[in-house]
Design brief:
With about 280 residues, the protein is an alpha/beta fold. It has helices at about 10-20, 55-70, 100-105, 135-145, 160-170, 215-225, 245-250, 275-280, and strands at about 1-5, 25-30, 35-40, 45-50, 75-80, 110-115, 130-135, 155, 175-180, 180-185, 190, 205-210, 230-240, 255-260, 270. The protein is built from eight helices and 15 strands. It binds ribose-5-phosphate.
């Protein structure tokens, strides 16, 4: 087995290669004069693991090109982050079901798929090959233990994050957990329904699968500080951090913004490599 990655996931792929003790295939990324992506990979093996998050459109093109480079091998596609996963339904007439067409396209050339905290598990069948979704909840719990917090409250900012909050709380040894109710008003603004939470003097960790614009977490943090929270941190799986999200979050008083390396950034403070490696060798 050998590991190969797109540009987006070089560090994570390297970590997976180290943990699984498998070689990482060298890839040269360049562009043709017209801007098209050109890849040149080293020697591939019979079983290839392609590791590549899809954050922006070029990441998807690179994944498709890597799948073709590995076409003579058995391919496991590790998709740590999948953009468009929030478009898992047709919300209005005339819209695409974006998650479905992307999953179908990527699944067409591979033998199996591994995702990490995919926004909706209902997307998995669209890959058309065996697909599993891994949860980083245990790793998030372990990371939260390293924060300067005592007896933290683990809070999901919406109903969709309730299970993640519960799983992290259990992983931390039965921390208290709760979730809020969110109504999305636009791409970057949300309304969090008023809810009295006993947070006076407490440390609160807002947990979520994705931080995109930071609108969800900053709105929740403002409400928590008004109710007397001592400190608010936010820990997510996928730090998309679009449109100045980090500034938005820290200026709302959030003490720390932490994510995994499914999207590599300065906020990546814990890794998905271990759980992915376990899935690959089990
Ligand atoms: C939505 O359902 C997701 O779980 C996140 O809550 C959402 O993507 C966060 O987006 P933003 O950071 O833009 O508020």
């Amino acid at each position: 087995m050998k590991i190969i990655s797109n540009r987006r996931s070089q560090v994570l792929a390297g970590r997976i290669a180290t943990v699984t003790r498998n070689p990482l295939v060298d890839v040269r990324w360049t562009r043709f004069p017209d801007g098209e992506i050109s890849l040149q990979a080293g020697e591939i093996s019979d079983h290839m693991v392609i590791v590549g998050s899809f954050v922006e459109s070029d990441d998807l093109i690179e994944l498709l090109l890597l799948i073709d480079i590995c076409r003579n091998a058995e391919i496991t596609l590790v998709l740590p982050y999948m953009s468009y996963a929030r478009q898992d339904k047709q919300f209005n007439p005339g819209e695409p079901l974006s998650a479905r067409i992307i999953a179908r396209t990527l699944g067409a050339g591979v033998s199996r798929v591994i995702t990490v905290n995919l926004h909706e598990e209902t997307i998995l069948p669209y890959f058309g090959v065996p697909a599993i979704d891994l949860s980083l909840a245990p790793g998030m719990a372990k990371f939260i233990m390293s924060l300067p917090c005592s007896n933290p409250l683990i809070l999901g900012p919406d109903a969709g994050a309730a299970r993640l909050a519960r799983d992290i709380a259990t992983g931390g040894g039965e921390w208290e957990n709760d979730h809020l109710h969110k109504v999305r008003l636009s791409g970057d603004t949300v309304r969090i329904e008023p809810k009295v939470i006993p947070v006076t003097g407490r440390d609160v960790i807002i947990v979520d699968d994705i931080i995109s614009t930071g609108g969800t977490q900053s709105t929740a943090a403002s409400m928590l500080y008004l109710q007397g929270a001592a400190a608010v941190y936010t820990v997510c799986v996928h730090g998309v951090l679009a449109t100045g999200a980090y500034t938005h979050l820290t200026s709302s008083g959030i003490r720390g913004v932490f994510s995994s390396d499914t999207i590599e950034s300065a906020c990546s403070t814990y890794s998905a490599a271990g759980i992915i490696a376990d899935a690959l060798i089990s």
